[in-house]
Every structure is written in structure tokens, then in C-alpha cells.
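Hi R.,

Here are the chain sequences for the assembly we discussed:
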Amino acid sequence: MAQLNINGTVRDVEVEADTPLLWVIREQVGLTGTKYGCGVAQCGACSVHINDEVQRSCSIRVGDVKPTDRIVTIEGLSKDGSHPVQKAWLAVDVPQCGFCQSGQIMAAAALLKKTAKPTDRDIDAAMTNICRCGTYQRIRAAVHLAAGTSTTNRSSTL
Amino acid sequence: MNTTIRGDAAKLSRRTFVVGSAAGGLALGFQFPFSAAQAQGADAEINAWVVIKPDDTCVVRIARSEMGQGTLTGLAQLVAEELECDWKKVSVDRITAGQNLARKRVWGDMSTGGSRGIRASQDYVRRGGAAARMMLLQAAADEWKVPVGELKVADGVITHAASGRSTSYGKVAAAAAKLTAPDPKTIQLKDPKDWKIVGKPMKRLDTADKLDGSKVYAIDVKLPGMLCAAIKDCPVFGGKLVSFDESKIAGRPGVRRAVKVNDTTVAVVADTWWRAKTALEALPIVWDEGAGASASSATIAEHLKEGLTATATNGEVANGDAPKAIAEAAKKVEAVYSTPFLAHATMEVMNCTASVSADRAEIWVASQNYEASLAALSAASGLPLDKCEVHRHDLGGGFGRRGGAQDYVRQAVAIAKEFPGVPVKLIWSREEDMAHDFYRPISQCKATAGLDANGNLIGLHVRVSGQSINAFSNQAAIVNGKDRRQLQGLWAEPGDAQLGYSVPNLLIEYAMRNTHVPVGPWRGVNTNQNAVYMECFIEEVARAAGKDPLEFRRALMGKHPKHLAVLNAAAEKGDWGKPLPPGVHRGIAQFMGYGSYSAAVAEVSVSGEGKLKVHRMVLALDCGHAVNPDQIAAQVEGSVAYGLTAALYGECPVDKGRMTSLNFDSYQIMRLEEMPKVETVLVPSGDFWGGVGEPTICVVTPAVLNAIQAATGKPVRSLPLKNVKLA
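And here is the predicted structure of the full complex:
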């Protein structure tokens, strides 16, 4: 049994304490925007915010999450896709298959909360999630666009 | 990516679909679910490709898979162009394999691989759009009682100048739907110079729900009463499942049963996947590992090495007498290269949800070939095709992994059969996904060249030894022991994957050396290894001749103007020959695959400690017609990431017959920090339709390796680079 505050709603979940938060979010809570990619905190597809910090939920035991911890998933980032990161991702047409993008967006949103005007080096350090489609160049462009450190939605020099 | 249907599913699929088509499809009382458009009544299906809603929305039906490559948007652009509709009012509807079968495959081939999604569909989807436009105009002409030739249409608004009348597609759609389709001979496609939607960087139609978590991938499927399954196949390829002790997991929370899936595989079924996975890890399993257990990377390398000098080969491309020319040459150059097995590692692991009852079988799945999925479902469930349906989900990555094999479909159906009427979602762990892929084939290459006294290439002998995809999955394609496919990109014939060089004495050979490891198509397939061998060796030969690598190539390309134009474009935009910052060096490569021409220039630096940095890559591509330049650029950027990951880190070592790199901690993937600045140069000659998803990946690695050689003076002959000391 655990009590979780997810996207502003407090819920009780019936689950073993050693279950990863990722699987509780996906299976018990039923929010599937947060993805399983590796289970070993390598890929970041499972990224969520806990008390405004980006965390890899596949490697956090649900028993270690306090009822007062504020968990935000991709579904709770904004009501209507209006978070600046989501808008920038749309403007740049970042996603290809899209599977990793929930995690990428959560990582970018956490970066901008801490560092409003990130440099390329800040982006390198913060955006460590894996994308197999290879959208990295557009992710960089979209983070800059969301931060207002660039006004172009063109990532490529086509 | 090749989508050859494999194994039992292949036979069933081919036979059934061919027979089904010839015999008029499955008309025997087959009820397939009506598409949403038909069910709503007010929407008008003008033809198979186009449905018009009363509010003027144009729904374009899409048959091919969307796995990130933008195929869906490109196909919609092609239909919309001929339809003359308002692009802002275009939406898409993905048709299912069951719908296609029920309508005698009116939507054609659904397989999505080999970079064929757009180039192999473009003619008939454009004709579908044009035919719908003709019918909509005819309906307006009939209503106004004027000759159809007096009407004009733009953005879905039909006007008759003489009478000043106008109407919209939504208003005439119901009448148009009742008209007879035009004679195909009367359909005239637009001149490409008049295109307004095709050739433009339209935004993708499938982005919004990827930004808020609402897109439902197959792994996200939720069904009432659904159970979840975790699975383990014998870690050694070819081994067998002997037994498992279910009593050891009895009483664990949520666990229903352990299930023997097939001769090699066991699964645990529980109420949630995490409970199934942890129970599976606690399940004692006895394997018969079989003969493969003695194989290792070292034994496989020895096996391949023998093929570099063996007498008989399994296919060749030849002109002149290369061995003689090389023997008599003023200067001889020789090198041996190797490339490893690689896993696809799609972000979304293999998964499939299945529900099987006595008279109905359904799956929810991501597939590059939903018809192969349907065939696999029918075969595994034992139910005829008309009792089966495939609910399609866009893929969380494909890259060739989700094509013909459909192994995860057969597994999911076998498990679901044990729980009649209950949907069961099978999800592979990442470790299982890495342990049981169909890997990019391992190979080696011995290359020998002869130069005359002036440094001209007079003889070239390339021997590739390695595993064959066809031998594993499509033996019918091997004719008289010759397997042409493994020499992809080195062929003499123009059109698809032609070698861009003319050498007076040329011998390219393939020695098939198979292993117990399953292999399959991996983005770019054999162009990857063959481009490394050819382009890195040409680099070495150019240097031995004392010539500029670009000039040396140009001299061999006089009879290959399209290859040459792309090479020149990359060289020009890549500033070939211009000064570079201290410590930065350039490399160049060109190759052809999937009907398109590619070239790359890489800029790299290698530190004193041997640390490599790839700063910039310029890639040029001639894919003929360029349907969506922005999405083509996205594919080029993605190819750089996928290709560079392979060059830097990619390898699947084999020990005791099994894969040992089972997650991203050991199978490293390139991160954003390492992504070079990528510039895409389109060189669209506009007189053919080439592929986009795969062609450019093969030039990434050789361009980088050639730049490293420029930096260090030493060639790199084995991959990945993480195992190579650069300083």
C-alpha cells in the first residue's frame, strides 16, 4: 500500500513496496505517457518530476516515495499542451516515433525550471535521455526555442 | 529494411493473400468492423483512399506503418496534392490488415521497410487522390448541370466562373460517393512543377499526441480484464526449454500461471507486468543449451576469417581480371576489415497484446507489416484469417526489427490461448529484447587494390565473408548458392544499390559464413557494412596513391553522374579543401542504396589521449522526388545518430552461445552531447522515386572513419571505435 500525489491528485495504491514507481504509474495508476525503456535508469524514457526535480522512475521504489512528494508526469505537465517545452517541440517537429519524447520533454522542462536560459553546454549536461530515432539536433533547437534563446524553429540547415 | 515475410507466417501470408486476391477475397460471410468513417454515415467514402466529411475534412486512408519516419504525413501529402484539398483540413485514418484483406487488398502492400513506404505507394495513392477529385468535380457539375471541364477547384472549393457559383467538397461528397470511379486511363497526375503540397516542408500530422502522453503505443494498451506476461526464451540461440518449477512462484501476488510458450520459451502471467517479470526472475528454469553454447565472438571471427581466402564464393560482381591486374600492378594495397553483430534496440521493447477465443482472435501490436502480423495471428491461433484482426499501433521504433519475423505475435497468441477470451499483454524486458533480436549480420572483408605507376586504380578485389540474412529467413532468394543481397551497394546494375565506381579490373565476392545467431534487416541493411569496406578502402588506396580522396573518387565516377553529383554537393557544402580549425580533419564517403544516392563529409578531431569528437557532418542526398524536405532532413539527422551510435559503441558480443550486452549500460547509445551538427543537402534530380529512411546511414561511418584517418594517419579497420585506440 502506498499513497502517492500524482499530478495534484492524492491516491492510494495497492502494491508491493519494492515495485518501481514507473510501473505503479503505468499499471496501478494507469498513466501510460511515462514509458519503460530500460529499467536501469539509462535511457530516461521513464522521466517524471518529483518535487520539481527530474527523476528516472524505473529505479525508484514506490516505498521510498513519501505521500507529500509531488510527482508530475507528462500528463500533468500542462492541461492542454501549452507548456513552453511542448509548444517548442511542436514548432520544431521534434518527435519521430515519439516513444522517448515524454521523457525528453520532462527533462527539458526540469532544465528550464532551474536554468531559464540554458547554454548548449547546459543542454548537453541535462539532456541525457536516449532517442533511437536520433532527434537530438531538434531537441537542442526546441530547448533553445522554449527558453527564448533562439527564435528559429528550424533545426536543420536544409 | 527488408520485410521479407519469414518462416511459417511467410508461407501462410503469401499463399493466403495471393489466393484471396485471385478468388475475390474473403467474401464468405466475413464481417470486418466497419471503419469509423463508414459507421458515422454522414461521411462519404469517395474511394478507398479518400473520405470527405460534411465539414470539408478530408480523411486520407493510410496503409503503411508509421514508425517515426514520417511516412504517414508524406503519403497524405501525395493524396492531398492530387485531391486539390485544403491541407489544413486533412486528417488520416489508418486501415487495418483485416480491412485490407476484406476489400481484396484495395490498399495494396502494407509492409513498411526497404525505404519503400512512399516510393512504392506514390503512384497509386496519387491516382487515388486524383480519382476522388474527378468524382467530386463531376458531382458538382451534375448538380449545376454544367460541363465538368468548366469547373475549377482549389483548396477543396469548387467554382464555376461563368455562373459565379461555388461549393465545397463537403457539400458534394455524398453525391460524389455514388458516382462510378473514373476509367484509370483518364486519370492524369499533376506535373511535379505544379505541386503545392508535395515537395513542401509540411508539419507532421502525428505530433500532437506525442507531446502530452496521450498517444497509445502497443505497450500502453489497456483492455478490461487484461493480464500481463513476461517471457524468457532460451538465452542460447537454438537451445531448448527442458522444464520449469512453477511451485516456486506459487502464491506470489497477482501471479496466475507459468506457461510453456513453445519449445524454447517460458512465460509467467500475472495481473500486472511487474509482478509477472519478478515472478519470472524467481522461476527455476532448466535449459538444454544445445550445440550453440560453445560459440563465442572469437570462434565466430575465426569462422568468418576462413571465408576471406576460401576458394568458393556465394556471389560476385566482376569485370576484367582483377587478381591478374593486381598481381602485375606497380603498387599493391591490402586491408582487412570487420563489423560486429548489432541489435536494433528500438525504444519500445517488443510487445503484443492478444485475445483468443474459440471463434475470434485479435492482437494489438506495432508492426512494420500488419499483414504479416495477421498471418502470424491466424497461424498461431489456428483460426482462419476472417476470424482474426490486427489492431494497429504506431511503432515506438522499427528499424527492421518489426518486419517479417513477428516472433512476439506468435508468442503472445500462444500465451493468450491458455486464457481463452482474456486479453494478455506480453511485454519483453529490455534484456530479453537485446538477447533475442534478429541482429545485423556480422562480417569481415579483405580488400586488395593495384595501382599503376601514376597512382591510377587498375584492379580492385573485395572479398566479403559473413552471415547471410537470406540464409536465415528467405532461402528462396539464394539462387544456385549465390546470395546477391549481401553485396548490396556493390552491384553493377543501376537503379537501386549500384557501385558508383568504374574500375577496369574488378572482382567483388561474397563468401557466406553463417552462425547460430539469428540475423535480419537493420536500418540500411548490408549497405552499412559494404559502405564501410568500400569507402574506407578507397580512402586507403587514395592515400597510397598520394591523391586527394575526393579527386581520387571523382576520377572513378565518370560513368556515374548521379553518384558524382551527390558527392560533389557534399564536398561543396562540406567545404572540402577549405581551411579548418587546428586539430580538425575531414573525411568523405559516398554510396548508394534504396534507389537513392548519398554522400557525407565529416569533421572530427582526435585528442592527444585519443578521444574522438565528431563536430559536423554534411550529408547530401538525391532521392529523386523529395516529398517533404523537412522530414527528409529529420531522417538524415536520425541516420547520423543511428549510424554514429553503431560506429562509436555498437557491438553484440557472443559468449557461451548467448548475447552478453543486454541493456543500455553495456550496449551504449549516443547521447545528445555527442550529436554533431548535421547539415542536409538535398540534390533532388526529380526524375525518379528513391527511398529516404535508410539511404544516408551507410555513409556516416565511413566518412567519420576516413576523417579519423586524416587526423591520425592510421586507418580504422574494425568497429566499434570504443575498442580502437586512436592515440
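Chain A has a mean pLDDT of 95. The domain at 84-147 of chain A is CATH 1.10.150.120 (DNA polymerase; domain 1).

Let me know if anything looks off.

Best,
T.
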